[in-house]
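Note to self: the last two entries modelled the partners one at a time, which told us nothing about the interface. This time every component goes in together.
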Amino acid sequence: MSGFDLSAILTNPEYISMLLHGIEMTFIIYIGSWTLAMTLAILLLALRVSPLRIGEPIVAAYVSYHRNVPTLVQLMLWYFGIFTLMPQGLSDWLANNNAEAIFAVIGLGLCQAAYFSEDLRSGLRSVSPGQMEAAQALGHGYASAMRFVIMPQGVRNALPPLINHSVSLFKNSSLAIVIGAPELTHAVKEIENISFRTFEIYMIGTVTYLFFSLIIMGIGAYIAMRADPARRARA
Amino acid sequence: MIHDFIAIIQDYWLLLLIGQYPNGPLGGLANTLILSALAIAFAFPVSILMALARLSKWWFLRWPMTALVYVTRGVPLLMLILWCYFVIPLWTGADVPSFLIMLVTLVIYQGAFLSEVVRAGIVSLGQGQMDAARALGHGYMGAMRFVILPQALYNMIPSMISTFVSTIKDTTLGYVINVPDLTFAASQVNNQLLTQPFQVFLILAVVYYILCWSLTYVANSVERRIARRRAGPRNPRLPAEAAPLKTITEQL
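The predicted structure of the combined assembly is written out below.
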């Protein structure tokens, strides 16, 4: 093996375009599954606090399944299992439209929704019931008390775990390689196979992941700082 | 459909349980459990050393450890596995079995995460414990050994169990470097049957679910017991008083 030489990869336009496509796909999967997860998490939370008796056990079962089965196994079940049970027309359509990426988004999103909904729930639970009573004593209705008093505090409490789990989701998007989605880790493996410069390309892949993870952590810290009431009072 | 499940389990339960053991390497559920247990057993002392290094007053211990923890938090486990898979045979010059590579990766990865738990446990005890121990004549190491760590580690037991659960879930990633674990066995079964992937992978999911759910259940009951003990005998009905340590574990 020749010496360490990053430029061998960074000056090759073919490798660069493979890397950029990988990063693009990683972000499509990440943003798609994050949006799906957050939407579902809010629905799950609404179902859980709703007066419907059936809501609670359904959400509890959903969360329990997605937290106790490894994400990789969930992805495999979706792609290798459920995909084959779908009606012919639908599976043909999926196969022609990048099924790997779609199932990565579905699998990761559904799994992450369980974590996000638990984060939001524990955030809301940490707001003391006195807040609701005080808001209602001041003339707020249930909905407006929720909107102006409970929710802002609850979401602020939920921010640190939400940020942690957003970073984990970004890292977990690399699992999509197992079902063959052409994301960043996939691109790294492919370039390794062509160029044999394992050390260099792993280094580039690692630094790229680390860079974006740190950016996500930074955005999270910024949002948490903006949401801090002590800072707003000073401003 | 139900018959398919029963038939698969009847035909392949031994493969899923121990892999091809008498005729080949140990695999299946047994290997998953051994791998996770070994990983956690090694990660535990490693994490204590890492936490002490991160709390050290010497920068040459503190900085590299902090960097290592941030790197492990920011890089996917998959990437770390690929690194070890490439680097370990290169350094040792030997043909290292994938089981050992996965073990090393998990020790580094979980060690970094557990070290955050240990550090939080030490910091949450407060400076007073250390001051009191020093006033009684302990040196720094003596105070750590006899006063700080026993308390911090006792409070950490629930986090340890949930780290064990996430380690079990992490072992599935060994699939990419062909570690013969439960997921590997299931995909072997799938390759032999070819026609029933949904049934095979659903069985796999159910086995993991039962395993992780029961361990999580144990972790929760231990956590309640510890919270009660920390609350003291005077008000055993107020476990909320002793704020439980936040469980910092990685999901996977």
